[in-house]
Amino acid sequence: MNNTAVTSYRVVAVQHPPFMMYNNQTGKWYGFCIDLLDAIRETVPFEYEVREVEDHEFGSLSENGSWNGLMRELIDKRADIALTSLWVMAEREKVVDFTVPYYDLVGLTIMMQKTKTSTSLFKFLTVLENEVWLCILAAYFFTSFLMWLFDRWSPYSYQNNRDKYKDDDEKREFNLRECFWFCMTSLTPQGGGEAPKNLSGRLVAATWWLFGFIIIASYTANLAAFLTVSRLEIPIETLEDLSKQYKIQYAPIINSPAYIYFQRMADIEMRFYEIWKDMSLNDSLSDIERAKLAVWDYPVSDKYTKMFQAMKEAGFPPDIDTALKRIRRLDEYANNEFAFIGDATTVKYLTMTNCDLTQVGEEFSRKPYAIAVQQGSPLKDQFNNAILILLNKRRLEKLKDKWWKHNPVKQNCDLENSQSDGISIHNIGGVFLVIFVGIIFACFTLAFEYWYYRHRAKVSELHQTTPPKIKMAKAIKSIRFDLHPAPTHGFQTLSQIRSRF
After folding, report:
1. What is the greatest pairwise CA distance in the chain?
2. What is the value of pTM for the model shown?
3. What sections of the protein cross the membrane (predicted)?
4. Which residues of the chain are modeled with pLDDT < 50?
């Protein structure tokens, strides 16, 4: 049969969102590749009928040299076109023809579950340990009490030299309440206000200022680092990181392109090892030639051999649903962390539609997507011409935007681990609660002040209406002895005392 006269082509496909998808309700295929095929029909008029390959495989070469999946359908001429996100590979090009690539280079990548950072309204308090906070509080009370004690007993303080400082604009008596207020406000940008008059009190204040400066600087630096690091904590960033650790299990879907890639890389490393071993043990080599092969370290990398062995021990998931269960640690997989390695477009689509998943690291082993046809089919040249026209008209870029940027199933995920995001309210909201509690406390204090003022007014009225005899009796009962340090202006020098004798 002459293919050029055929107006209806048999298209075989494998479901791979968003390239090829099937609507069970309407019974129709849709996706990026269907839109691409419809766009090609504008240049090459034809009809087509799509069916899914029975084994749901893209097409891989077995040990006995036989093919399966889409490749088998084209080889046996049961289909004219293989349409899906199909990689161009060297072994496939020997049995089928590929058009020019219709999509960028796509590789393999890693997918993991997003790390869930713990949030707390009072996270700013966890920067310092509880023991440190208690020590700061103890230092605050001790310094306040010490400042009050020095001001009370120093002969050069304001309260012991009121006459000397009566003309000063700022008169501050450092009683216990003022000392507590001074030490607390000294830790804020507002400052503590006027310092004590006596030198000993000023030394205590200067020591407290230095202490507060160091504490605030250390707290600010650690708070910024603490909140930033908690948002950027990612256990694995590259394939190299994955290969060097043993805590997180990892594997691709069995018999997938990713599986074949690691299997072949491990096989190549083993072949190189055998070649090096045979050369090193070859008796026909001279002593000089053998000495050149004698090295302390193994000269060929065995990274993929170790990784493939680790994958075997972890177990290969049979399908993507099982891989997602292992990533999310559901059911029997709850005890082990898991990283999935697969097609970058598969990972991109899953992370686009699931906010709990994230892509890790860069792509590797990149290859283009293309349409496969039977070997020698005239459709290759016709499709090549149509795809190039679409590229020049930037139609393919519009299709990418449609199925990636503007896909209706795309989720608006919170980028909580993004470096560009600021600190969330869940981590800093406690600061606002502190303000709220402070305002509530101030309101209660205002109510107490109002009540105390009214109570004093009533007591004053009562004293004014009380007879003098009753006042005298109450005054006698209220007599008490108060001990105060002697004022400095009343001190007598030793020479004055001697002059009396």
Report:
1. 146
2. 0.66
3. 132-150, 208-229, 428-453
4. 1-4, 6, 416-420, 475-484, 486, 488-501
